[in-house]
Write a structure and sequence with these properties.
4 helices, 107 residues, mainly alpha, 4% strand, 2 domains, two-stranded antiparallel ribbon
């Protein structure tokens, strides 16, 4: 990437545009950042590794499928099951009160 940057700076300098050089450098920096974000960055002293986009997507996709305990999908299934139990218990409780009201003639 630095070789490309140096070549572009040299071309822009030969073209005679100081502002062109600055704009070109900023553009190439942004492009380099985008490529680094896509590919990821290896760990270096004091800075942890940053995985690339495809690695991060694979990690996210793993969470979408149950594995009998530790994925996000498993957690959602547990919450859904718990809510269903509460709803069923509440419906049963309300039905019991309705039945008692009908039996005692209050309804």
């Amino acid at each position: 990437m630095t070789e490309i940057l140096a070549a572009c700076v040299a071309l822009a300098t030969l073209a005679g545009g100081g502002t062109v050089v600055v704009k070109l450098i900023k553009f190439l920096k942004k492009m380099g950042d985008a490529v680094d974000d896509w590919q990821g960055e290896p760990a270096r002293p004091g800075v942890p590794e940053r995985p690339g986009v495809m690695t991060r997507l694979a990690t996210i996709e793993e969470q979408l499928h149950p594995n009998h305990g530790s994925t996000l999908r498993d957690a959602i299934n547990r919450v859904e099951s718990g809510v269903r139990r509460v709803e069923d218990g509440l419906a049963e409780h309300l039905e019991s009160h309705r039945a008692d009201a009908v039996a005692s003639g209050r309804e």
